[in-house]
Amino acid sequence: xxxxxxxxxxxxxxxxxxxxxxxxxxxxxxxxxxxxxxxxxxxxxxxxxxxxxxxxxxxxxxxxxxxxxxxxxxxxxxxxxxxxxxxxxxxxxxxxxxxxxxxxxxxxxxxxxxxxxxxxxxxxxxxxxxxxxxxxxxxxxxxxxxxxxxxxxxxxxxxxxxxxxxxxxxxxxxxxxxxxxxxxxxxxxxxxxxxxxxx
Length: 199
Prior knowledge:
CATH topology: NADH Oxidase
CATH superfamily: NADH Oxidase
Structural class: alpha+beta
Mean pLDDT: 97
Number of helices: 9
Radius of gyration: 18 Å
Number of strands: 4
CATH architecture: 3-Layer(aba) Sandwich
Strand content: 5-15%
Distance between the termini: 31 Å
Largest sheet: 4 strands, antiparallel
Helix content: 40-55%
């Protein structure tokens, strides 16, 4: 399947088959793929937590609003976190990067203030989300990005330390009765001429 076909068939899964699990070899491949995600200036301000333990998933499910059943029934839940503050990023991540990169950060980004730096760091984690969703689809794995979670409660359950939860992604295999799959409910997207300009 080429990437266009993947884009046409991928969808946000609403109902998972709890009896189908993603095998460990595939999970290890996904971990390596997410490790290789792109980020501006190679900042990598993230932490990814792969949760398969049923007890921990049950705890997280209680803090997942309408996503509760997805968290319970999916094979894994991957929690995307961002480093807690600009100072931690500078001390733990920036020092690992080349001098030219640190110079750019200190000259262009840092003067904008901590709030703007955190907005920028958070944006990098969202870049990794797109990368991850594409990767799961390419491997035939279904996924559900979830912002509808109580992030502070997730942090408590996962003991996130220097990172704070932004969102999570349920992954696994769809229930055959999932009404959101494109064979049941055709995808709706705006037409190209409404959203794309060619100059």
